Amino acid sequence: MIKEAMQYIAGLANKEVKEVGGQIYSTGSLELVQEPVTSTLKVNTLSALVTYLMDNYDKLEPVLVHVVSETDVRVLSAFNRDKRRNVMLQASAVLPDINFERYMDVESFNVQLQACFVENLDRAAVLKLVGNVKEESGNTYADDGVSQQVTAKSGVASLEKVTVPNPVKLKPYRTFIDIHQPECSFVFRLQSGPRAALFEADGGAWKLQAMASIKEHLYAELEDEIKSGFVTIIA
């Protein structure tokens, strides 16, 4: 082993750089010694990211804030000598587990709506319906492919026909809690059981809305840092 090590060292000493036909060649292989990059600080809120930049705890040079997605924002350095960036900080949103496009019993559906969605008028309407729905044999459902009718309790004993609203405008928790949750259209469906489900109906446009809201929020919070040239934000 000692002999092999000595031969390796001798080989390093014998390497040369030569010019042939205007091109630069090495008589041995060269390995790049890369400039080290920092370990990334992990946080879960935009407020933590804002505090980090306002206090400039690590004495950073001008940085780039990249809104990667509705749940991921990163603070990046300029290129180092190897054209690599340090990811100084990464903010990742902590989100509840919400089931879309899957039917569930109305009790679980009710709990999910109350726990994982921002309160608004459509949420209240859907909660009222699923909390009173009663499946009956016979002509319980009227379905034209867009809206449905179900037999629901009215008061204690009487029954009435209630139209299920479609689409419904709801605000599930799907981005950072620091900003307003984006409103999204959902198709609300019921089937025998009774079971209920929500199907996303905006083609993912809510993600762009959320990213724009994150950028707007950061612009407002970091106004002085942006004006000074310390922070640049892209989304």
Label this structure with key terms.
235 residues, alpha+beta, 2 domains, 5-stranded mixed beta sheet, 4-stranded antiparallel beta sheet, 6 helices, 14 strands, elongated
Tell me about this structure.
- The chain is of the alpha+beta class.
- It folds into two domains: 41-95 and 210-234; 104-202, no CATH class.
- Helices cover 29% and strands 29% of the residues.
- The protein contains six helices and 14 strands.
- The strands form four sheets. Strands 3-6-5-4-14 form a five-stranded mixed beta sheet. A four-stranded antiparallel beta sheet has the order 7-13-12-11. The protein has a three-stranded antiparallel beta sheet with strand order 8-9-10.
- Strand 1 (17-20) and strand 2 form a beta hairpin.
- Helix 3 (106-116) packs antiparallel against helix 4.
- The model is unreliable at 154-158 (pLDDT under 50).
Brief characterization of the structure:
This is Phage protein. By secondary structure, the protein is α+β, with helices and mostly antiparallel strands.
> How many E strands?
14
Q: Order of SSEs, N→C?
A: HEEEHEEEEHHEEEEEEHHE
Approximately how much beta-strand content do the residues carry? 25-35%
What is the mean predicted local confidence, pLDDT? 84
Characterize the overall form.
elongated
Low-confidence stretches: 154-158
Look at the helices and sheets and give the structural class.
alpha+beta
Cα distance, first to last residue? 54 Å
- Largest beta sheet, briefly? 5 strands, mixed
Helical residue percent? 25-40%
- The strand order across the widest sheet is 3-6-5-4-14
- Which oligomeric state applies? single chain
Whole-angstrom Rg: 29 Å
Number of domains: 2
**Alpha plus pi helix count:** 6
Organism: Paenibacillus polymyxa (Bacillus polymyxa)
Protein name: Phage protein
